């Protein structure tokens, strides 16, 4: 049997005082209007429910019942506030209690993003709009029609796209955009807190030779292996390893001075020296080295984060010209 409330059930619930739309009118026209409204609510793909001034459910359509994780019937008399996440609860409590004192005014609230705690423990994000019911349909007490729009699919897609937009597709490290944004944030924090901020730029030496000798696909796999190793070398989750471009990487170390950065760079140098690429099909004699440039903001010596990166790039250039497989520091 369908769980949708049909006209007969509606009447039964009405008699039971559970559904308190004031449609006990003697007017056949109004009763017909009411039935049509219920039919419309029940047939819509959006969650629609009606609450009274206390927030108790007077009517719940099938979609809203599904979003709350209960049957339509069992929700009647429950309170909307019990389904709201703590962060939204106070806001809605306040809104409903404010509305109680406002008489004869059409009110509307939302759409606002809310987090709903479903009966089975799942949590969904949704947009909730609340509008007062026309007096012609709710004259005995004030009622509010609520529309609940499920945002879960959009949120999941948004989060996926957000991760994609900040991730380098080949290596899985932060991409250049994420690097710039993080660096901007770290820079401001560093200036405010007067804590150091250090960047290391790392460039694979003679990488063209690897590509030319073993092909770009093997070259890609080398870059992936190096990226994985870099991630393991960063000292904390606060630090960022990013692909700066091509065969160049960046490591950002907030609250780390040049000494700590030099320890990190030496560790990277050692790890690279020990790396074997036989697992990706390169001969055992293939060895890769990297050149690294370090610059640190400590005493307002750089104008902005771009200047800090530029300094690390200058240090990297020096490491290259000094023969590669070197670490160069700008003090
Ligand atoms: N496989 C692969 N190669 C890349 C990628 N991005 C850049 N490269 C290669 O990296 C190489 C960079 O070459 P160069 O700029 O001459 O530098 P290098 O050979 O590493 O020499 P030095 O940096 O001077 O030590 C080129 O062969 C690029 O094609 C990538 O995503 N995948």
Characterize the overall form: elongated
Average residue-wise pLDDT: 89
Q: Which consecutive residue ranges, at least 5 long each, have pLDDT under 50?
A: 1-20
Helix content: 40-55%
Small molecules bound: guanosine-5'-triphosphate
Tell me the strand percentage band.
15-25%
Structure description:
- It catalyses: 2 GTP = 3',3'-c-di-GMP + 2 diphosphate.
- Its cofactor is Mg(2+).
- Residues 33-103 form the PAS domain.
- This protein is of the alpha+beta class and 331 residues long.
- It has two domains: 7-155, PAS domain (Beta-Lactamase), CATH 3.30.450.20; 167-330, Reverse transcriptase/Diguanylate cyclase domain (Alpha-Beta Plaits).
- Helix content is 44%, strand content 21%.
- The protein contains eleven helices and ten strands.
- It has helices at 7-15, 28-43, 62-68, 72-75, 86-100, 152-166, 176-193, 207-214, 216-233, 258-274, 305-321, and strands at residues 47-52, 57-60, 108-117, 123-132, 143-150, 197-204, 240-245, 248-254, 290-297, 327-330.
- The strands form two sheets. Strands 2-1-5-4-3 form a five-stranded antiparallel sheet, sandwiched between helices. A five-stranded mixed sheet has the order 7-8-6-9-10, with helices on both faces.
- α11 links the parallel β9 (290-297) and β10 (327-330).
- It starts with 6 loop residues before the first helix and ends with a strand.
- Residues 1-20 have low confidence and may be disordered.
- The chain binds guanosine-5'-triphosphate (GTP).
- Guanosine-5'-triphosphate (GTP) binds next to β6, α8 and α9.
- Guanosine-5'-triphosphate (GTP) binds at residues 170, 203-208, 211, 216, 219-220, 223, 246-247, 320, 324.
């Amino acid at each position: 049997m369908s769980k949708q409330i049909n006209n007969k059930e509606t009447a039964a619930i009405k008699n039971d005082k559970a559904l308190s739309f004031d449609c006990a009118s003697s007017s056949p026209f109004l009763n017909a209007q009411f039935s049509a409204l219920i039919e419309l609510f029940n047939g819509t793909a959006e969650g629609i429910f009606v609450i009274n001034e206390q927030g108790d459910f007077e009517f719940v359509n099938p979609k809203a019942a599904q979003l709350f994780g209960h049957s339509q019937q069992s929700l009647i008399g429950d309170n909307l506030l019990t389904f709201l996440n703590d962060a939204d609860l106070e806001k809605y409590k306040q809104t409903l209690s404010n509305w109680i004192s406002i008489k004869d005014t059409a009110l509307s609230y939302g759409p606002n993003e809310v987090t709903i705690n479903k009966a089975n423990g799942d949590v969904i994000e949704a947009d909730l709009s609340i509008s007062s019911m026309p007096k012609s349909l709710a004259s005995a007490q004030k009622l509010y029609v609520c529309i609940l729009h499920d945002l879960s699919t959009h949120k999941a897609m948004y989060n996926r796209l957000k991760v994609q937009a900040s991730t380098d597709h080949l290596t899985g490290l932060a991409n250049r955009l994420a690097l710039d944004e993080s660096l901007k944030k770290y820079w401001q924090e560093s200036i405010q807190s007067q804590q150091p901020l250090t960047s290391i730029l790392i460039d694979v030496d003679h990488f063209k030779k690897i590509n030319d000798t073993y092909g770009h696909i093997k070259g890609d796999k080398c870059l992936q292996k190096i990226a994985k190793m870099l991630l393991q070398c960063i000292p904390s989750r606060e630090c960022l390893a990013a692909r700066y471009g091509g065969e160049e990487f960046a490591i950002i170390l907030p609250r780390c001075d040049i000494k700590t950065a030099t320890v990190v760079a030496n560790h990277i140098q050692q790890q690279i020296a020990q790396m074997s690429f036989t697992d990706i099909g390169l001969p055992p004699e293939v060895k890769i080295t990297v050149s690294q440039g370090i610059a640190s903001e400590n005493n307002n010596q750089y104008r902005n984060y771009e200047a800090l990166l530029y300094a690390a790039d200058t240090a990297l250039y020096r490491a290259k010209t000094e023969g590669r497989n070197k670490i160069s520091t700008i003090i």
